[in-house]
Amino acid sequence: MPYDQIPSEASLKVESFNCHVPDLQLEGFKFLLRVSPIGPQTYENQVADVNDYTSFGIHRTWLEDAKKYWLEEYNWRKTEDRFNTYNNYTTEIEDDGFKYNIHFIGLFSKKADAVPLLLTHGWPGSFIEFLDVLEEFKSKYDENSLPYHIIVPSLPGYAYSNGPPTDRNTTTEDAARILDKLMVGLGFGAGYVAQGGDVGSFTSRVLGTYDSCKAVHINLCIGVMPESEEEVKNMSATDQKHMKRYNDFGTQGNAYARMHGTRPATIGLVLSSSPVALLAWVGEKFNQWSDKNPPLSQILDDVTLYWFTSSFPRAIFGYRQFFAPVPQFFHSDPKYYIKKPFGYSLFPEELAPVPVSLVKKTGNLIWHREHESGGHFAAMEKPKEFVKDMEDFIAAAWNKPEAKM
């Protein structure tokens, strides 16, 4: 396939990977989905408005309709076929005695000066978020002209990547270390750009402390707060609107995160017991955090991937850091101030759209762009705009003196 020429400097053993669920497992899933009940009508689930943080969550009718579509019209095999049109790989990375089997999609360039770009997802996302971005790059460049090597991994614990280990704690810092080993092992030790949203934004910020990471771009910077009410009053009307959504998330929209962080064992077991339960939990977030409610098929692609790979209970380890006795918020931690070229894209319907004035406090912000539309799943919602942001940021950052550090 095109775009499959792995750099000769790569030291990792990389194997091609085919996304495929065994027929028996697929049949079992369909049976379980068919017999999974939906809870009774209540006042709350009849008036719920998923697009309002102050409402009660997912509407029962949405869940009923989604289950029916999932059973009668949705085709997982077509989704797998789409995955397999890309160059999927796995590679083994050993870390502190544990072997991680990391899945990633690679779009490799034949240009000698191609810039390595690492794109990292978060929860409840997956590598699927970047498929339209990869299509956009492929439509603009062939493998001989592509200015970038693009690596889209499944984070440890997500999708087709295994882990984390079950006999010890795992942190966001551990995940970042694995990703740096991936990029260096693919032959990019001389430098790469890290980009991330959601959990990927925390991971990318940590990667900014590694010598091999030369620049960082994020589209979420949650945890950074104004120093006073006066600072908010002096903001533009647009930024004050952003701050309201940010505050609404902090007071009404983060119950899920508290559950992930304080009761990961319980919620992990609960959502592994029923595909309908998982759909309600994840579907709420796709609808609430997107600028416009995404197509149901996109949500089902993600939820079905989570189900078949048991991603949910394996993927939420990082949330415990936010609700530890001493909470760790990476974007406001001076230890993770980004000294290297730093970029930020603000999408107004992000779960917490942090104003640029606050983001500037967290690193050497050399580039930013504020969009008029788009939400939390920026790469999926706005692939053309996302690609333009990557191209413009890399053009501004790659040859900066700080990127040589």
List keywords for this structure.
globular, epoxide hydrolase activity, hydrolase, alpha/beta, 9 strands, 405 residues
Structure description:
The chain is an alpha/beta fold. It has a domain at 84-246 and 329-404: Alpha/Beta hydrolase fold, catalytic domain (Rossmann fold, 3-Layer(aba) Sandwich). It has 18 helices and nine strands. The protein has a nine-stranded mixed sheet, sandwiched between helices. α5 (131-140) crosses α18 and α6 (172-188) packs across α7 (199-207). The longest helix is centred in the middle third of the chain and has 17 residues, at 172-188. The relative contact order is 0.14. The mean pLDDT is 96.
CATH topology assignment of the domain at 84-246 and 329-404: Rossmann fold
| The CATH architecture of the domain at 84-246 and 329-404 | 3-Layer(aba) Sandwich
Largest sheet: 9 strands, mixed
Given helix and strand content, the structural type is: alpha/beta
The percent range for strand residues is 15-25%
Q: Give unreliable regions as ranges.
A: none
